[in-house]
Design brief:
alpha+beta, MetI-like fold, 4-stranded antiparallel β-sheet, 8 strands
Length: 389
């Protein structure tokens, strides 16, 4: 039997940690309780009640129009339908913005490290101007100084006889939904998968093996197939200008509000992503560059095969934050009249007086959007981490 004296619980760090955490939890619950009681009292004083039934009430229609809508919508639809339109509009600009901002940000980040003086200075000027200017001012610039100054619909600008620009929007070619387009996209996806598989095998082949020539032929053939499928395989629908009716029919139509928000978010977020990419690339030791060059790799191959994969483990965490910021910054679309979930919720709140309910819906919506982005990026972050043997 040990004669060691037991430590009193008030001096035991294990009990003290549990006690401290319990105290913090109690304080949080008390604060939430006070806020909840205050909310209930204010509702009772104003004669209001908390309920979400009005959202799906068929007798209560939205009674307002929505310019941008990915699904059929009329002013006689319910508030729930209007909120769904807003959610889809928010997702539309978030997903498009994240993809475009990532592409532009990586390009500018690599350009800032270029050996070419002009390319490096242009990238630096772009980053410094955009990062140090408020996003809201940039959105106003794109909207009032660019898109609203485009030619009138009666005389739209025509680019390459396929793109129309006017103050009512941008009109782009778009694939038709038919079997030809579906088969073409299937061929493109399969060809892309084969290219990835061939590139993985190609990098493991010794320099002078005859299989390299065979793989090169296959790569060229697959690239040609993809180009042919894009140009002639997909059934493209081109916008057409009707002179008599003075309108543009066909193709993909982007409203000035959506185009402004998408370009503004892309350009703004890409400047921050560029700095993240630059820092990630510079975190890789110069010895890796020297090792890649000693193997006979040029700068492009060294970046793609050696440097960038190692930089990803540094790039992904701050890149996740930039994607989350883009998702949250999309709510600024209300300033230029874009009908996202925040703008529509604000309109419903003004009509019904259900400010708390609509605020809760908006908060939960953005919370879910950001949790999805965080989950995806965290999964990707675990894949790029270097595992030691």
């Amino acid at each position: 039997m040990s004669n060691e004296e037991k430590i009193p619980f008030w001096r035991d760090s294990r009990y003290l940690n549990i006690l401290f955490q319990g105290l913090i939890l109690l304080i949080v619950l008390i604060v939430l309780g006070i806020l909840g009681v205050n909310l209930v009292n204010n509702f009772a004083r104003l004669g209001l009640s908390f309920n979400l039934g009005f959202i799906f009430d068929q007798d209560r229609t939205a009674s307002f129009r929505i310019g941008d809508s990915l699904i059929p919508y009329r002013a006689t639809d319910t508030y729930g339908r209007a909120i769904l339109v807003g959610l889809l509009n928010s997702l539309r600009v978030m997903i498009s913005g994240i993809i475009l901002a990532f592409i532009l940000g990586v390009t500018v980040g690599i350009a800032k490290l270029s050996d070419n003086w002009l390319v490096r200075k242009i990238a630096t000027i772009y980053i410094e101007i955009v990062r140090n200017t408020p996003l809201l001012l940039q959105l106003f610039f794109w909207y009032f100084a660019v898109f609203l100054k485009l030619p009138n619909i009666s005389n739209p600008a025509n680019v390459f006889k396929a793109i129309f620009l006017c103050n009512q929007g941008i009109y782009l070619p778009w694939p038709l939904s038919n079997i030809q387009t579906f088969l073409s996209f299937l061929i493109i996806v399969l060809s892309g998968l084969f290219i990835i598989i061939i590139l993985q095998k190609y990098n493991n082949i010794q320099q002078f093996e005859y299989r390299k020539k065979i793989y090169q032929v296959f790569l060229i053939a697959l690239i040609i197939i993809i180009i042919l499928a894009l140009v002639w395989g997909i059934d493209w629908q081109f916008p057409q200008y009707e002179i008599q009716n003075k309108r543009i029919q066909g193709g993909l139509s982007l409203s000035p509000e959506f185009a402004t928000l998408l370009i503004g978010l892309t350009v703004y977020t890409a400047a921050f992503i560029a700095e993240v990419v630059r820092a990630g690339i510079q975190s890789v030791s110069t010895g890796q560059w020297e090792a890649a060059k000693s193997l006979g790799l040029n700068s492009v191959l060294a970046m793609r095969l050696v440097i960038f994969p190692q930089a990803l483990k540094v790039i992904i965490p701050p890149l996740t934050s930039e994607f989350l910021n883009l998702a949250k910054n999309s709510s600024l679309g209300v300033a230029i009249g874009y009908n996202d979930v925040y703008a529509i919720a604000n309109t419903i709140s003004n009509q019904t007086g259900k400010a708390v309910e609509m605020l809760l819906i908006v908060m939960i919506s953005y919370l879910i959007f950001n949790l999805i982005i965080s989950t995806i990026m965290n999964k990707f972050n675990t894949l790029v981490q270097i595992r030691e043997r």
